[in-house]
Design goal:
single chain, Rhopdopsin 7-helix transmembrane proteins, two-stranded antiparallel sheet, 5 helices
Length: 202
């Protein structure tokens, strides 16, 4: 019964993370993917300034949320494999983690919400509207703020998460190589014996 309850809790927590990934992908597809596809094909942004802001903000928001959710999944798997006797994430903790993921993602995407704009550009075949991010010191490629933001975004959403996940999966791989799946390691058996001894001493 205990194993069944633990498995059900693990499945529920994992489902929370997977649903969160699906929501992030759906937002990306509807609010960023479709409008940008039109923009790439026509080189014209016909959706207005509000949609421009929403599209740029959604892009950074959902990318960050997706990456942070993958890190949360990795941590959950790491605890399950490397430290199976440690308390697993509950649904309440998982929801709190997802709330933190979206708050951190919104904070990271905030500049695109504040500085996105549209402007009209004259081409040989007529005037077209462009959606872009105009920083206080200018726009790409002359803006230093844009350069620094992209470096921070790269570090926070790629370098740091990738480092954490590579390290975690390396540890999980080493743990699984050291034992057959479903068996306890020598250290874990010692912990179990110690807990049993303490229980009987009471």
């Amino acid at each position: 019964m205990h194993l069944h309850t633990t498995h059900r809790r693990m499945r529920t927590v994992t489902n929370c993370f997977l649903v969160n990934l699906a929501i992030a992908d759906l937002l990306m597809a509807t609010l960023n993917g479709a409008p940008n596809f039109v923009f790439l094909v026509t080189a014209h942004w016909p959706f207005g300034a509000i949609t421009c802001t929403a599209s740029n903000f959604t892009a950074n928001l959902t990318v960050s949320a997706g990456v942070f959710t993958l890190v949360a999944i990795t941590v959950d798997r790491y605890v399950a494999i490397v430290k199976p006797l440690q308390h697993r994430l509950s649904r309440k903790v998982a929801r709190a983690a997802l709330l933190t993921v979206w708050c951190a993602s919104a904070l990271l995407a905030l500049p695109s919400l504040l500085y996105s704009d549209t402007y009209k550009k004259q081409y040989i075949n007529g005037e077209r509207e462009i959606c872009f991010i105009k920083w206080p010191d200018g726009s790409y490629p002359t803006s230093r703020a844009d350069y620094c933001y992209n470096l921070v975004f790269l570090a926070v959403t790629y370098v740091a998460p990738m480092s954490v996940m590579v390290w975690a999966y390396a540890r999980m791989g080493a743990t699984l190589r050291g034992r057959a799946i479903g068996e306890c390691t020598h250290h874990q058996m010692q912990v179990v014996r110690a807990k049993r001894k303490n229980h009987w001493k009471r």
